[in-house]
Every structure is written in C-alpha cells, then in structure tokens.
Design a protein that fits this description.
This protein is mainly beta. 5% of the residues lie in helices and 52% in strands. It has one helix and 25 strands. The strands form four sheets. It has an 18-stranded antiparallel beta sheet that branches. Strands 11-10-22 form a three-stranded antiparallel beta sheet, with no helix packed on it. Strands 13-14 form a two-stranded antiparallel ribbon. The longest helix is centred in the first third of the chain and has 21 residues. The model has no long low-confidence stretch (mean pLDDT 90).
C-alpha cells in the first residue's frame, strides 16, 4: 500500500505565508526601507541631526518590482532647520540585460557631504537606525553633482561600477585651496571613478534578477580608483586617488568572533581638502570628559577630535574581539568587546590648504579600549584611551567614555 504525503492545511499555508512576509519586511527594514506596493519608503531621510544643519528631516524612496522589474526611479527631499536650506536628489536606473547583472544609472544631487569622507561606489547600502558620528560633524561642503554610472557583476563574487560625474564644490567653512597663482574657495570637478568589490569566499543566489549574498565569507576586498581631470566640462583641478579596504572575521564559537579592518588611501595632484582623508574621528571638541560624552561608532576613532587630522595618504588598522554574550537572563545578555585601532598618514604641500588648521598622522595614532554592549534597550557603554605618538598632556583628554547602541533585526 502506497503512503500518501499529507496535504498541508489551509491554516498552515496561511501561517507560512505570513511568516515569509514578516521575514521580508524585517529584511527590508534592516536595509532601511519600508515597502509599499509600488514604492519603498527610504527611512534614512526621515530625521537626522548634525552640527551644521541642526535637525534635518525629509522624505524619499525608490520604486520596486511592483512598479517595474526593468526600471527604477528614486528621489528624496530634505530640509535643514539650522541652515534653512532644502537638499534633494533624483535619479533613475535601467536594466541592460535579462539576468539583472548590469544597470545604467543617472543621478542629479544637490546636498551636503562631510569633508574628508571617502566612500566606495560598490558598497552595499549602509543603513543604521542611529548614526552616532553624524551628530557631531560640522565640516561639510555643499555639492551639486550630475552623474552617469554602469553597475555590472563581472562574476557573482566580483561587483564593479564605473561612474562619470561633474560637480560643483562649495565648502561651508572658511577654506581656500592654492594652486600656483590661483586661489579656489569654490571649484568645479569632472571625475571618473571605477570601483570593485571582491568577495571570493561568499556564496550568491540570483533572486528576482538580483544577486543576494546567501553565505557570508571572508576576507572581503574593495578597490576604487578616482581621476579628476581639469579642463573637461569646466573642471578646475586635476588629481588621482586610490582607495583600498579589506575586512576579515575569524569565528571562534557561536556569537564570538574577531574582526579586522584595514583601510588605505592615497591622493596625488591638486586634491582639495574636501576629497582627502580624515581617518573617521568621533570625539567632540569640548574640554571635559562629561561634555564629550556621546555615542560611539563601530569603525571610528573615539578619542580623535573632529578636524584634528587630515591626510593625502593614510592607513588604518582596526581590531575588535567580540566575546560570547554573558547569559545573565533570557533578556539580559551583555557582550564584552575589546578594541584597538591604529592610524598613520601624512600630507604633502600642507600649505596649499588655507583658512583651516590641522595636523598630520605621521607619528602614528593609537587607541585601545572596550565596550559592554546591550545593557539596556540596545544601549551599552564604551571606554577608550589614546596613547603613543599623539598622547595629550592632560590625562583626561586622552579618555573617551560613551554610549554604544546595537540593534539587530
């Protein structure tokens, strides 16, 4: 007698469908989107705060597959209450092949960018419910940027993006760049950028014409080359940059691992301060430990003051060891993390940058400390100490005590 496979009840199917919908919703929220039928609302733009704009609020998002699987449209608008200025962006994408591995993007943006920050085009979308560094940043430049780019997956493990852009750069602070007999307080740039992301030990699956990382492997490598060319579309400066990053994690046991991040950058030519490197500081320029009490980041230097150092060549190495959480109670599992960070850098022709005073990292910058995370509602505490070549005369100026904030969906 043949056995029969039991047929799932209608209630079971409904429960399974609801479970899938909840997982998809959580994944979308974790990526910073609230999905609707045709349009995914971008949670990044709802509310933020920084030292230049004060509170910033806005609305934006992008169309999804319900609207079209071949085309995407995205836009946002935001308003800063301290600078009393609107910022906005609009763009679109078209799929160039059937498997969704090649996209053409066109964008127009009028917004702000932190001076000295550097991003990889191929980075996955970064979203955090709370961005601690953003609260204390005050050195921004205004930019109006028009760009065309092509995203292409050379293989599932090698992602690439090529971008051509023209930009107008206008620092919001007193700054002039000297180039021979010319002085620039505002300038135009024409840039070509090619970026690669290589994840040799990750595994990918094509889901709805999009590659999804199903197995996370390490190390991961990022490489980006930038060339600014003068004389093209009114561009006034000529420089080149190379940026590199590798990330490696070693698993010791469930929930215990060690994470290493190495980042390096090199700029050559007439690169203004806006397009150089600051090594991601996260310490407020105030006198006492309590006045500097804020929220710690993950890959930022907690004892390094904002705008203290800039470089045209730099390397940072960061180490974080996560111990297995302490099983104190079912809902109280704090986790100890040991931290150590090192940065070294330098700058040629520092006298070309006028109107702002800063140091270099040629002596080597070192800090170490710890975090105790998830003490209450995702909040914890961290303590970090600055030592070595840039140890400060006042003992308490070398110490940073801060909140941490960790939420996982």
């Amino acid at each position: 007698m043949q056995s029969q496979t039991p047929i799932a009840s209608k209630d079971t199917v409904v429960v399974q469908q609801d479970s899938i919908k909840k997982r998809d919703l959580l994944r979308q929220l974790g990526n910073g989107f609230f999905p609707t039928k045709y349009f995914d609302i971008d949670l990044r733009y709802l509310i933020k705060y920084n030292q230049y704009e004060g509170f910033r609020t806005g609305f934006g998002g992008a169309t999804n597959d319900g609207f079209s699987e071949k085309y995407r449209v995205r836009s946002y608008v935001a308003y800063g209450f301290r600078d009393n200025r609107f910022k906005y962006g609009i763009g679109g994408s078209a799929r160039l092949n059937a498997n969704g591995q090649t996209w053409l993007n066109v964008n127009y943006t009028d917004d702000l960018q932190e001076t000295g920050s550097s991003k990889f085009l191929t980075d996955k979308r970064f979203f955090s419910f709370f961005e601690p560094r953003l609260l204390n940043i005050d050195l921004f430049y205004k930019f109006i940027k028009q760009s065309v780019s092509i995203e292409h997956a050379l293989t599932p493990k090698i992602l690439s993006e090529l971008q051509f852009a023209v930009s107008n750069i206008n620092p919001t602070y007193n700054y002039q760049y000297l180039d021979g007999g010319n002085t620039y307080s505002e300038f135009n740039l024409s840039t070509a950028i090619i970026s690669f992301q290589f994840n040799p030990f990750s595994e990918y699956t094509l889901v709805k014409n999009r590659l999804r990382e199903t197995t996370v492997g390490f190390p991961k490598f990022s490489l980006q080359l930038t060339q600014a060319v003068s004389g093209v579309f009114k561009s006034e400066l000529n420089f080149s940059k190379i940026d590199f990053r590798t990330l490696y994690e070693i698993k010791h046991q469930p929930e215990s691992f060690t994470r290493f991040v190495l980042t390096a950058g090199y700029a050559n030519g007439n690169a203004p301060l806006s397009h150089l490197y600051h090594a991601y500081p996260n310490n407020i320029n105030k006198e006492t430990i309590l006045q500097r009490f804020s929220v710690a980041g993950i890959d930022s230097f907690e004892t390094m003051f904002f705008n203290e150092f800039f470089s045209d060549k730099f390397t940072t190495v960061q180490f974080r060891h996560y111990f297995k959480p302490f099983q104190i109670a079912s809902r109280f599992k704090p986790q100890l993390v040991l931290i150590s960070r090192f940065a070294i850098g330098n700058m040629n022709n520092i006298d070309k940058h006028q109107g702002i005073t800063f140091g270099t990292l040629d002596k080597g910058y070192t800090e170490s400390g710890f975090e105790i995370n998830k003490l209450l509602f995702g909040f914890g505490l961290s303590g970090t100490y600055r030592y070595g070549g840039y140890h400060l005369p006042e003992f308490e100026d070398n110490i940073a005590v801060k909140f941490t904030f960790n939420v996982t969906l």
